[in-house]
Each structure stands twice: as structure tokens, then as C-alpha cells.
Amino acid sequence: MRILVLGTGGVGGYFGARLAADGNDVIFVARGAHAEAMRTQGLRVLSANGDLHLERVQLHEDRARTGLVDIVLVAVKMYDLEAAAETLRPLLQIDTAVVPLQNGVEAAAILERKLGRRYVCGGVAYIAAGIEAPGVIRHTGTMARLVFGERQKNESWRLETLEAACRGAGIDAVLTDAIEREVWKKFVFLAPFAAITCLGRTTIGAVREDPVLWPRFVAMVEEAVAVARARGIALPEDIVDERLQLARGLPTTMKSSMLLDLEAGRRLELDWLTGAVLRLGEEAGIATPASREAYEALAPWRAGRTGT
Ligand SMILES: NC(=O)C1=CN([C@@H]2O[C@H](COP(=O)(O)OP(=O)(O)OC[C@H]3O[C@@H](n4cnc5c(N)ncnc54)[C@H](OP(=O)(O)O)[C@@H]3O)[C@@H](O)[C@H]2O)C=CC1
Ligand SMILES: CC(C)(CO)C(=O)C(=O)O
């Protein structure tokens, strides 16, 4: 099974490296100084789950050398998704599974428009990881979980193969027959979590203790759940309480990946997180005032420090 990792950052680098270290045929798409470091020094993962160093990595250089692939793990940021998807088409064969791991609820639909529905599955990544230096991925904490599933059918030999490869590599991976619900389950937590940590420029631990930030977070979770339900997503009855419990149990020092981007002056995924709550809420006739307030406060930073 040949796996293409489209975007070798925190998510793609961590899971791709674990799969490669277990002997899977993994080809990485990377660019810039990070790609150059991977070419000359390999790819290193620093993690409480076990450090690893791939001395040699297969980098995607061109179509001929990469050939056709069986699985694509899509792990570029949302603002890079359409352009990255353009490069995929020549690498796909009839039953290639393209698995988006982005935050938000819109990646699969974007990929379906670009590539066609047959290829595109759904996926969710639970991990906190990033590029610490060129060629080096830093994983924070121990959480490293993948959930994926078919969007058009229940049975999936192609994803069963991926699940087996992940488990062989020590990755906590689950194949689900309700992937749309899983993607929304993460979204109704993650969009508010990203927004509130960015608004406070602080950790979830500090948010929990703050008499202003915590109620704003709760209101945003309630709004996101209302949007999901209005769009026909069958979330569990107790989803708000369950998501708040999740937030209460997170490590005190944990930050969202969007806060790390904000602190580093990078572009934000705001428009696919809080922005999507507003957009999808409007379409469904759901008011989202707490999310709107957060969006408007963060919007000046969405293009990053360089404004590009
Ligand atoms: N980081 C985390 O802990 C988590 C992130 N997520 C989600 O996963 C997705 C990926 O996030 P993350 O891993 O943090 O992102 P990163 O920015 O760490 O990694 C993405 C990588 O893809 C590269 N890239 C983008 N487009 C291309 C291209 N066309 N060709 C080659 N390389 C490309 C980027 O390069 P460059 O830097 O040059 O742009 C970057 O190195 C996001 O949607 C995020 O919300 C989900 C769960 C946890
Ligand atoms: C909350 C977390 C770390 C969980 O995966 C995440 O997805 C993010 O911050 O982007």
C-alpha cells in the first residue's frame, strides 16, 4: 500500500512518520526549508509516545517517480487545500482513498468538487503537533488519534487496510461508519476552543478559570451545536455537556493550533472555524452572536503578520 502524505506539518509529519517507521511505503509532500531538511537529514519526530528519526524519507518530486497511490492523508492548512488538491489528480487510481484530516467541516466537500466523490473519505485528527524546526515535528502531550470513514458507503476495504496499517504502527485509529457526525463532533468543540484561546491569547487552563472567557466558550459550543442540529447532524443528546467535559479534562497548558499560528504571526484558519459557524449558521437560520463577536475580534489577524 502506497501512502501519500499531502502536507508534512504537525499532523501529516507525525502520522506519516509513524507509518513510515513501521515499514509502510510513505511518500511525503513538503516544501521550502522543511523539504530541504527532510532531504538531507531525514524527518525527526519528538514525542512522549516515542521519538523517532527516519534517516531517509521518500519526498514527492514528480508524478513519474511517485506513481499511483492507494491512500492520501491530506494535512495542509485549509487555505492551501484547493491548490494542493490540484496536484493530486495524476496520482490517483480508481480506488484511491483521499482522507482529509483538517479541522472544520468543509474539507471533504472541497476535495469532492476538485477530484470527484469516489475518492473522498472523511477524517478527523486528534493531536497537538507542529513543525518545531525544518525536518523536526514536535508532538505535545500523548493524544494522537485518527478517526476516518467512507462518506458514500459503509463497507470499506481500502480504509480497513489503512486502519490495519495505523494500528500496526501504534497509531490509535478508528474506522467509523458515521464519519460526518465525527467530523462535526470535533468541530463543535474545536471552533470554540480555537476562538476562545485566541481571544484570551491563553491556554485552556486559564480559560477554565476565567469568569468572562469560560461563559463565552460555552455559548460558542451551544451555538455550534445548534448549527449542526439545524443542518441535520445527529449529535448525541448530551453533546454540549460532553464537549465541556472534554474541555475541562484537557491539559492545563494546552493551546489550540490556531493560537500557535496567531502567536507565530502565521495565517489563521479562522474562516473555516468560527467563520464557518457563522456562514453555516446563516444558511440554516441559526443566530450565532457569541461566535460573531469572536470572529470580528479575531478577523484583523486572519491573514497573519505579513498580511499575505
Ligand atoms: N497541528 C495540530 O495539532 C492539529 C491540526 N489539525 C488540522 O490539520 C491541518 C494541518 O495542520 P498542521 O499540521 O498544523 O499544519 P502545518 O502548517 O504544520 O503543516 C502543513 C504543511 O503543509 C505544507 N504545504 C501546504 N501546501 C503545500 C503544497 N502545495 N506542497 C507542499 N507542501 C505544502 C506547509 O508548508 P508551508 O509551511 O510552507 O506553508 C506545511 O509545512 C489543519 O487543518 C489543522 O487545523 C488538526 C488537528 C491537530
Ligand atoms: C485541540 C486540538 C489540539 C486537538 O486535536 C486541535 O485539533 C487543534 O488545536 O487544532
Separate helix tally: 13
Radius of gyration: 19 Å
Helix content: 40-55%
What count of domains describes the coordinates?
A: 2
Strand order of the largest sheet: 5-2-1-6-7
SS-derived structural category: alpha/beta
Would you state the CATH class of the largest domain? Alpha Beta
Question: What is the CATH superfamily label of the largest domain?
Answer: NAD(P)-binding Rossmann-like Domain
Question: SSE string, helix = H, strand = E?
Answer: EHEHEEEHEHEHEEHEHHHHHHH
- Corresponding CATH architecture of the largest domain: 3-Layer(aba) Sandwich
Query: How far apart lie the N and C ends?
Result: 38 Å
Q: Indicate the overall shape.
A: globular
GO molecular function: 2-dehydropantoate 2-reductase activity
EC number: 1.1.1.169
Pathway: Cofactor biosynthesis; (R)-pantothenate biosynthesis; (R)-pantoate from 3-methyl-2-oxobutanoate: step 2/2
Domain Ketopantoate reductase N-terminal: 3-151
Q: Features of this protein?
A:
308 residues, alpha/beta, Rossmann fold, N-(1-d-carboxylethyl)-l-norvaline Dehydrogenase, domain 2, 2 domains, five-stranded parallel beta sheet, five-stranded mixed beta sheet, 13 helices, 10 strands, 21% strand, binds NADPH dihydro-nicotinamide-adenine-dinucleotide phosphate, binds ketopantoate, KPR-Related, NADP, oxidoreductase
Characterise the protein shown here.
The chain contains 13 helices and ten strands. By secondary structure, it is of the alpha/beta class. The protein has two domains: 176 residues, NAD(P)-binding Rossmann-like Domain (Rossmann fold, 3-Layer(aba) Sandwich), CATH 3.40.50; 121 residues, Orthogonal Bundle (N-(1-d-carboxylethyl)-l-norvaline Dehydrogenase, domain 2). The strands form two sheets. Strands 5-2-1-6-7 form a five-stranded parallel beta sheet. Strands 3, 4, 8, 9 and 10 form a five-stranded mixed beta sheet that branches. Strand 9, helix 6 and strand 10 form a beta-alpha-beta unit. The termini are far apart. The model has no long low-confidence stretch (mean pLDDT 97). Ketopantoate binds next to strand 8 and helix 7.
